[in-house]
Amino acid sequence: MNIKECIDRVDSVKPNSYSEEDKVRWLSYLDATIFNDIVKTHEPECKDTPTEFTGYDADHMNVKLLAAPPYDELYVAYLKMRIDEENGETARYNNSAMAYNAYYADFAKWYNRTHMPLGVRYVDYFGGGNDYAISVLK
Question: Which domain of life is it from (predicted)?
């Protein structure tokens, strides 16, 4: 999902008065968090994988967000949560936050299952192919 698609989906199901600029800024914050807390803590997918996240602005409306389907629902849930928070709607915010946190946790678990963490090596201490993960933090 790209930024424009995400904003359009949220606006169609949750009418609001927040600008596109606000929503792009919120999505940029979320992807910066995902990049720093999840992506950068794992081996890069390929040699061309960026090492820094530079953020989004109005010129990036067609840029794909970091979490691919089916995990991209976390962006819709995040924008709904931010709208509820900014509106001071505590009960709705709590419900939206629970949904967002579940989507975020699902994405983080998937990423951890499918990408090798940095600073981990496998050592066969006792032979016989029984490997143990050893954390070697950098």
Answer: Bacteria
